[in-house]
TrEMBL record:
Record Gene3D superfamilies: NAD(P)-binding Rossmann-like Domain (3.40.50.720)
Protein name stated in the entry: Uncharacterized protein
Record PANTHER family: OXIDOREDUCTASE, PROTEIN CBG09704
Tagged with keyword Transmembrane: no
Tree of life domain: Eukaryota
PROSITE patterns: ADH_SHORT (PS00061)
Organism: Panagrolaimus superbus
A Gene Ontology molecular function term of the record: oxidoreductase activity
Keyword Cell cycle part of the UniProt annotation: no
Family annotation (InterPro entries): NAD(P)-bd_dom_sf, Sc_DH/Rdtase_CS, SDR_fam
Keywords from the UniProt entry: Oxidoreductase
Amino acid sequence: MDFVTDGLKKTFDAILAAGVPKDRIHSVKGSITDSEVQKSLINETVQKFGKIDVLINNAGGVKNDEKDQRSMASLDYCLEVNLKAIPFYCIAKAALDHFARNYAAILAPQGIRINNLNPGLTDTAGVKRSGASDEMIQKMRNFYISQIPFRRAAASEEMGEFILFMASEKASYMTGQCINVDGGMLINSPSIKFD
């Protein structure tokens, strides 16, 4: 079983374990950089469920089979996944906040809300897929944690809970917002050491 198939099975099993009926689960296998896969994600979802209630753009990654992460192939892959795969506009992750604000204003009259979750350091398998050594990953992790006032990474469940809140009726009056859930990293103000 390849990595993608194994990941889909684990996700499928986790959704079933959470009590979601099998007929309420649908997946589309393929690269998010493929325009046909992008269309299938939308069309098959609408065909099976009648509509899309919540859309979460959470694609991201780097090309881990490249020896030189500064190669043009790595850049192209990164732009395809993180920039071009996002619906409607080819926007970079840094521009998603602007996208959220603009489209929230455009779509609000139709009752559609758009908000961005900007996560801080989160424990996911994505970092290990980057191709970096365990030692390098640990060094990076230690550095980032030293910059986070809570001095820890987030669990993926913490991000999931916030996404559930943003998608729920509890946040029904919230649109065009870019929320940082980062353990305080953006407010980190290291103390000046005088000795």
